[in-house]
Amino acid sequence: MTEARKASVLAANVLITSGGSHAIVLAITAVCNEGDNLLLTAPAFPHYKAVCDSYGIECRYVPMLADQHWQVDLDVAEQLVDDRTRVLCMINPSNPCGSNWSRSHVTDIVRFCERRHVPIIADEIYSELVFKGEVFTSVADIDTPVPRVILGGGAKHVAVPGWRIGWLCLVDPAATATAWMRGMDRLAQLHTGANSVCQEAFTKALLRTPQAHIDNLTDQLQRGAAVYNRLLEHDIGLSFDPPRASMFIMIKVECDRLRDIESDMQFYERLLDEENVQLMPGMIFGMDGFLRATISRPPAVLNEAVDRIIAFCERHRRSRGGGGGPFRAAGSIPVTVVRGQGEGGGCSKERISAVLSVPFCPSLSISL
């Protein structure tokens, strides 16, 4: 980062928050009013959509392209901007995709925002967790008059999520977003901030944690990501773009290759029922047809989980000739799932087409 760019990062424009989620709330609600809209690159961390829904803000997903290393489709973004678009939110490196955009693509996003006069909220909480051979580019390292609020926190690379230490920093070289900063500062006073003991300890952790520790952590994550390559050795309708950063991998599922699996949510439910392995359905991140898994678990756990995912897909795989009746695993029994309570304490029953596969459901639960 050049000296001129460093000069745009001012201590007066930094707020300490109660975790990264608190920073998201402040950044969005200080710039958006009810009825406004924002652009969110998707798949995205679900808290952004939850904040929008809570405050009457329309969340407009801008798709990221899985076959282009999860780059943002800026052509779609052009079509989504209108006179009530207040900000573009981006997460880089990505949760849930594990992507790390090139400097060229980050610059393209910034230039788009310049042209459309849209400020940026850049969630860079995974910026320290980029894999060997990768280079992270912050939006703060691009020369532009566009105001940028950069979000960070201690839950990831310093691995202290329970401390609730987060921060935001406004980079505003043209001094056009002072009201945004003032609004975030005022809103921050509505919430008890991070406690002073953790702030002191976290400061020491930032200053004294050796780079070798971070390198070891990212090396473990990279080895965890490599375990998922085993999925590609089987013709089971799963594929992915290899992660380059963060703690996650986004897996595409071709439901038409599987029997009795019509969506990512159904894949999630059936896999959990039959194999006791929990992946997160893509629909909660704003992109159907995908599943998010973590790469941070120990290799033995990841290998066991991958074994079960492969077994699940093999059992559900359609024959090459297609057709066939409803799938039922050997020894399985159909069940009726009872969900929800009616008024007055009565149960509202919903008949669910489900299979409880007792022989195939290991006692050890694996949440990815």
Automatic annotation (TrEMBL):
<dbReference type="Pfam" id="PF00155">
    <property type="entry name" value="Aminotran_1_2"/>
</dbReference>
<dbReference type="InterPro" id="IPR015424">
    <property type="entry name" value="PyrdxlP-dep_Trfase"/>
</dbReference>
<feature type="modified residue" description="N6-(pyridoxal phosphate)lysine">
    <location>
        <position position="156"/>
    </location>
</feature>
<keyword id="KW-0663">Pyridoxal phosphate</keyword>
<dbReference type="GO" id="GO:0030170">
    <property type="term" value="F:pyridoxal phosphate binding"/>
</dbReference>
<keyword id="KW-0032">Aminotransferase</keyword>
<dbReference type="InterPro" id="IPR015422">
    <property type="entry name" value="PyrdxlP-dep_Trfase_small"/>
</dbReference>
<dbReference type="GO" id="GO:0006572">
    <property type="term" value="P:L-tyrosine catabolic process"/>
</dbReference>
<feature type="domain" description="Aminotransferase class I/classII large">
    <location>
        <begin position="11"/>
        <end position="309"/>
    </location>
</feature>
<dbReference type="InterPro" id="IPR015421">
    <property type="entry name" value="PyrdxlP-dep_Trfase_major"/>
</dbReference>
<dbReference type="InterPro" id="IPR005958">
    <property type="entry name" value="TyrNic_aminoTrfase"/>
</dbReference>
<protein>
    <submittedName>
        <fullName>Tyrosine aminotransferase</fullName>
    </submittedName>
</protein>
<comment type="similarity">
    <text>Belongs to the class-I pyridoxal-phosphate-dependent aminotransferase family.</text>
</comment>
<dbReference type="GO" id="GO:0004838">
    <property type="term" value="F:L-tyrosine-2-oxoglutarate transaminase activity"/>
</dbReference>
<dbReference type="InterPro" id="IPR004839">
    <property type="entry name" value="Aminotransferase_I/II_large"/>
</dbReference>
<keyword id="KW-0808">Transferase</keyword>
